Structures are given as C-alpha cells and as structure tokens.
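Reopening: Site-specific recombinase XerD still failing for me.
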Amino acid sequence: MNSQPKNVISTAPESGLLQTTSLDDATQSAIDALLHEGESQNTVASYRAALRYWAAWYGLRYGRRIQLPLPVACVFQFVVDHAQRMTAKGLASELPAAVADQLLQQGYKGKAGPMAYATLTHRMAVMSKAHQLRGLPNPCQDAQVRELLSRTRKAYAKRGALTHKKAALTKGPLEALLATCDDSLRGQRDRALLLFAWASGGRRRSEVTEAEMHALQRVGPTEFVYTLHRSKSNQSGHARPENHKPLLGVAGEALQSWLQVSGISEGRIFRRVLKGGHLGGPLSPAAVRDIVQARCVLAGVEGDFSAHSLRSGFVTEAGRQNVSLADTMAMTGHQSVARVMEYFRAQATVLNPGARLLDSDH
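Support: Ran it again with your exact input. Result attached.
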C-alpha cells in the first residue's frame, strides 16, 4: 500500500530549486515506487483484495462510494455483517443475503457462506493500515471496536470455529509424495522442489518460486547451501548466519539431478514444465500448493495439505526427532519461540515423555 505524506505535495518552483517544506511530483512518485517495491507481492495482493472487498461492501450497503476516514459506526456494521453470532435460530450475521449474493457474483467473495474469522481480522487490519498511512483518525482502533473483536474471537473459540490449520507433511507422508516422482522432467522438478522446500527448513511458497541460481552455492558433488537473502521474518535483507540453508543428502541429490536434466544455470531454479517436456518460465507461488496437492492425490495421502504443510511438517518432524529448538529455528528462520511452537501438531505431542509418567517402565 502506498503512503502519501499529508498536505506536502506541490510543484517545484520554476527556478528548479526544491522547497524544504514540500515534495515535488517526481519525488512523491519515487517515494511511492520505493514503498511498493519494498513490500512483498503477496502482501500487496492481499491488501488490494481486502480494499476491493471493503469498497464493494460499502457501495452495496450504503449506496455510495467509500471515503476515508470511515465512521466508527460503519466499522461496527462491517463486523456484525461478517461475524457470526449464536441466535435462537442458530448462527447468524447481519449481512443481507442479497448483498452476499452480489459480492459473490461480482467476484469479491471467493465462495458462498460466512467469512472466516481470520479473513475478518485481516480485512480489519488492512483498513486500519489504510487510515494509519494516510494520517487519518482510525476507527478500527476505537476502544469499543477492539473490545468487540476480542469478544468475537472468544465466542468463536468457544464454538471451536477458529482457523483450522493445514495438516503437516511430516517424513512419512512426504516420502509417499516423493515416491510418485518419476524420472521425467516434471517428476524430477517436483522431487527437487518438495525436498528443497522441506529440507531447507520449510520454505514458504514464494521463497521456493523466487529462489535464484546466484544464491545457490555448491559445497560438494551433491551438496549445496542456499542463501535466503530476504524472507518474511527478514524483509529488510539483513545479513544473518541463519540466512544460509544447507541442502544435503537426498535433498542435495534431487537438486543436482534437476539442475543437470533441466540445464538451468542462471535465473530461477524452479520453472514450469510445458507439454512435450519442454522447460517454461518461472513458477507462480500457487504452483507449489498445486504440486503438493497433486502429489497427495497420486500417493493416496489423505488430509488437508497445502504448500504451508511443508513448513509445518518440517517443524513437526524436527520435534519428533528431538532436534533442538535452536537448530530448528536456525533452519526455519523464526525469530520467535512462541511462533515456532504454534507449528507443532498432534503427531509431535504424543511423543512427550510427560504423557507416560504412569507407565511401569517409565
């Protein structure tokens, strides 16, 4: 999202000298370009989608074009329109069915049904950011609005309706997916991609598809170190020891085979495979999810898996194999212990020795 300093844009004087109290159009354009370039594509896309939804909802509910700052009453209405509450007739919200249908038909809603709580809070956060960047009074930070959202979360938690996390691709199911990868160009790409994402610490899908050859260093015949120059937890690209991700063993072997058969020596590491077995352009981040899900189908692995399952699967497997938290975080790049702990799944918790205190052989 672009930030524009309030009331400071002006045209430079005819002499060509700049004014100390204002910005000329060229400078403002440069500021906007830097702000846009410094933000991840996924973040920009999610902000745009959220703001488009707000504008469409506002237009349908109030019959006019959205303008900032929004009144606090409007933000309250947005919450009760999208947050479900228990009534005598069951769960309900205030969004009229006709409005919901139009939002769906016009492409602002991805699917029919109530909005997930996580989606609601994300859209509230985006609107809050829009006010903040413009230096406007922020209705989303109103004390009563924040209290309503807090109570709403507790209500969802009581109903067990909070976000369902994707299943973790631990070692067992991952190996089943890898077994479906043959020696074709596509098969070798998918094998290398899955292992690159998983074994290097559970890379996010954008980190996989944006991986470049210049960041890959060979340290052995089939051993590599990939330098992750920028990530979600290091968006400023600071040089850190944990930026270097080893790709050893089967992961290194798969990557070496892919590079050899594909002939890739520069640019993006992972590319599209076209009909006829020809190499195409770079993959989109969504392609990682598609590869994971397609390989699950081929392997007969049942569960709600996605690209993020590779990341949660790595952390879960690390816990199962008693890898230290420090070593796990060095691989994943997490800065927060609490955040890493969120990734552990039931498969790891059943190995907790504290669960067997009553066993006779404990």
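The longest helix spans residues 41-62. If you still see a failure, please send the error message rather than a screenshot.
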